[in-house]
Specification:
Length: 181
């Protein structure tokens, strides 16, 4: 087992230490063994960082990446990264094409589906009318520095929930505005 400090990890994975700490905070990456200058990382950390970067290049949001890779152990992540590299050089295909293919196979690694973008069982399916793998973000501002971001498309039930949330937020912020005047 390779023992890496934060600088070695960042060099091998091509990321900054700030990115590493953020991914740990978001649950995308396991914390280091130890703390401070004694913190140590493994090859599993390097592989997971590389897989995250491969998926980010395909414009997947971090929340979606997290859903898809949390069920993978370090050996599975290392295998996916190595095979993505091999396939890309062999067929000039994108890394996501390879990962889609691997994750859509009928193996027990994940609950796999035959959709173009691999999905975990907890991921709600997009509405049938929406193009698979495409999304659009909407920004709703309620006050200075307070916003709600909604990724479209939504199901009808989700849209009703968002409508209720927005109505409640508008009501709350308009009440606070009246109290201050």
């Amino acid at each position: 087992m390779v023992d890496l400090d934060i600088n070695e990890l960042c060099d091998r994975a091509g990321v900054t230490s700030r990115t590493v700490y953020f991914y740990v905070q978001q649950g995308l990456l396991a914390p280091a063994a130890g703390a401070g200058p004694a913190a140590r990382y493994t090859e599993g950390h390097v592989a997971r960082l590389k897989l995250i970067r491969l998926l980010q290049k395909q414009h997947l949001p971090l929340a979606e990446i997290g859903k898809r890779i949390r069920a993978l152990n370090d050996q599975e992540v290392q295998r996916l990264v190595a095979e993505a590299r091999t396939r890309r050089t062999e067929k000039n295909a994108s890394a996501l094409d390879y990962i889609r293919g691997v994750l859509s196979e009928s193996t027990p690694l994940l609950a796999r589906s035959r959709t173009p973008v691999p999905a975990m069982p907890a991921t709600p399916a997009p509405p049938a009318s929406a193009p698979v793998g495409r999304s659009q973000w909407e920004r709703h501002a309620f006050a200075d520095g307070i916003e709600l971001h909604v990724r479209r498309p939504l199901s009808r039930a989700e849209q009703r929930q968002v409508d209720k949330l927005m109505a409640a937020a508008r009501r709350i912020f308009s009440e606070e505005g009246e109290e201050q005047s």
